[in-house]
Write a structure and sequence with these properties.
The complex is a heterodimer of chains A (114) and B (411). With 114 residues, chain A is an all-alpha fold. Helix content of chain A is 82%, strand content 0%. The longest helix of chain A is centred in the N-terminal third of the chain and has 43 residues. Chain A is elongated. Chain A starts with a helix and ends with a helix. The model of chain A has no long low-confidence stretch (mean pLDDT 88). Chain B has 411 residues and is mainly alpha-helical. Chain B has one domain: Amino acid/polyamine transporter I (Up-down Bundle), CATH 1.20.1740.10. Chain B is built from 17 helices and no strands. Chain B starts with a helix and ends in a 6-residue tail after the last helix. The chains are: A mainly alpha (114), B mainly alpha (411).
């Protein structure tokens, strides 16, 4: 019983260590999602050029891909959330993008307060 | 003192103040800590004004550029260490600027980033080769004034002026966790480094010699430093404040330099966006030229070669070859595919380590009455010089630990 508890504790601590290491990538992904939503907001109201929007989509996707591939726990809740964000189309509705941002922000806050 | 020349000099300094590092850190500082880091920009600007004025005065009176002094004051060995460190720091900074310029063109025209980096490096080399020295600096600096759109955006974004003014008071926000406190510390160090980049004094003092400044130009030097850099830093503060207003509440911590352009697009639409991108393009291109020439000046002055853009390229062949090779080396760094934001982080880190070695000989020489006569540092300049010297020393010691502890302000 004591041995099992130790193993469980070690596993949990390894997981939380991984999540702590991933915190910076979660923050990056959250910010990229928010930037993406802001760009799409402006694009939908015709306040930015098409070239700028396409270029920003390219670089944001690139940065998000880098953040995603840097995760030590890609199968975690936040890993899945980032993958879902990555799978969104470039011109996704801003609110849809913001829903991912909100979830990532919640995870980020939980990890920071842990 | 020619008023037209003075006005152009000040406007050039204003337009040329912001470079890719200031752009990135101003936007990130505003979104992360609201207006609480404005005072660090103001504080660092006083520092760069003090040392620029000092280097310009030494150039005017002693006709000595900074690196010449460094070799004599620090001795050959320490001088060589400083040279190597500053060449690496300026080279990384130059690579970050070239990457930044290519990104701006990518946002403006949609053309390939790599192709733009190559094309712009060639264009920058040609511009240095073709333009007289005065117009190399002016062309980029004056066109960088498009960035005034960020200041206009601050009005259009209904800036909370009282809170912005409150940001000028030195402060650490209340209620920060230890991690956030470390991150705040990292941003302070990064902003000091980005504003007080060593290439700025190398370029400024060598420029004074290129333009054959004499004691009659001391007032022009003082006004250009104070007004040009002072007003220029207002643009950086405008970027920070717009970011605090627009990006902070939206959970945006700008991950790429192009996001800053939204600060002008949101209130002014497409024209605001285009003006912001053009301003950023010219300001960053100007900084690329300055970092590269600053490096070539340092190397040529250290080894005692003929140098200067006032000479025909073939009259200073080693100097000419050096700046061309340095541009190509910076381009090679960009072509390895390393991210511009990473280059900016490294540029800021390396620069802060070099700053004490850059400013110490300048401080010693500008205060030497035997050398400078009645133009030696007065009591206020002397006090400010030593105060900022110790500040950059502390920042240099804190830079690496803070970088690793905060994962470059992200952790």
């Amino acid at each position: 019983m004591g041995r099992s508890a130790c193993i469980l504790l070690a596993l949990l601590s390894a997981c939380s260590e991984g999540a702590a290491k991933d915190l910076q990538y979660i923050k990056q992904a959250r910010s990229i999602g928010a930037e993406w939503a802001l760009v799409n907001d402006q694009a939908h109201s015709g306040r930015v050029t098409t070239v700028y929007v396409q270029s920003m989509h390219h670089w944001l996707h690139d940065s998000l891909q880098t953040a995603s591939s840097s995760l030590t726990q890609p199968q975690s809740e936040y890993g899945r959330e980032i993958s879902q964000l990555l799978a969104e189309p470039a011109d996704a509705p801003p609110d849809q993008l913001r829903s991912h941002v909100t979830k990532l922000k919640q995870i980020e806050d939980q990890l920071e307060s842990a | 003192m020619n008023p037209l020349e003075l006005t152009l000099g000040i406007m050039t300094a204003v337009g040329g103040f912001v470079d890719i590092s200031e752009l990135v850190f101003a936007a990130r500082a505003g979104s992360t800590f609201g207006f609480a880091l404005i005072w660090v920009f103001a504080f660092s600007t006083v520092g760069i004004v003090v040392f620029s004025e000092m280097s310009g005065r030494v150039a005017a009176v002693a006709k000595q550029p900074v690196f010449n002094l460094m070799r004599h004051r620090l001795g050959l060995e320490l001088g060589l260490v400083t040279l190597v460190a500053s060449v690496i720091s300026n080279l990384i900074t130059c690579a970050a600027e070239i990457g930044g310029v290519a990104l701006m063109l990518n946002y403006l025209l949609g053309l390939s980033y790599v192709l733009m980096a190559v094309a712009m490096t060639i264009a920058l080399i040609v511009s240095i080769w073709v333009l007289p020295f005065k117009w190399i600096e002016r062309a980029y600096g004056l066109l960088g004034l498009f960035m005034i759109v960020f200041a206009a955006a601050l009005f259009a974004n209904h800036a909370p002026w009282t809170r912005i003014a409150g940001g000028l008071v030195p402060q650490v926000p209340r209620g920060l966790t230890t991690k956030e406190m470390l991150s705040f510390g990292y941003f302070c160090v990064a902003i000091v480094s980005a504003v007080m980049f060593p290439y700025e004094v190398y370029f400024y003092s060598s420029g004074g010699i290129e333009e054959e400044w004499g004691p009659k130009d001391i007032l022009t030097n003082r006004l250009t430093s104070i007004l040009g850099m002072g007003l220029g830093s207002l643009l950086a503060i405008a970027i920070l404040a717009n970011s605090a207003i627009l990006f902070g509440p939206a959970n945006v911590d700008p991950a790429i330099p192009g996001t800053a352009a939204l600060e002008a697009a949101i209130p002014f639409g497409k024209w605001g966006l285009i003006l912001a991108l053009l301003g950023m393009f010219f300001a960053v291109a100007g900084a690329a030229v300055e970092t590269c020439l600053a490096n070539a000046y340092s190397i040529a002055q250290f080894f005692g070669w003929a140098w200067g853009r006032h000479k025909k390229p073939w009259e200073a062949p080693r100097f000419t070859l050096t700046w061309i090779i340095l541009f190509l080396a910076a381009l090679a760094i960009v072509l390895t595919g390393v991210d511009v934001m990473t280059l900016v982080e490294f540029a800021v880190l390396f620069s802060i380590l070099v700053l004490p070695l850059t400013y110490l000989p300048l401080l010693l020489l500008s205060g030497d009455r035997k050398f400078m006569g009645r133009y030696a540092n007065g009591a206020v300049t002397k006090w400010l010089g030593w105060f900022y010297f110790w500040i950059v020393c502390i920042a240099a010691v804190a830079a690496l630990p803070l970088y690793f502890l905060t994962s470059g302000g992200n952790g």
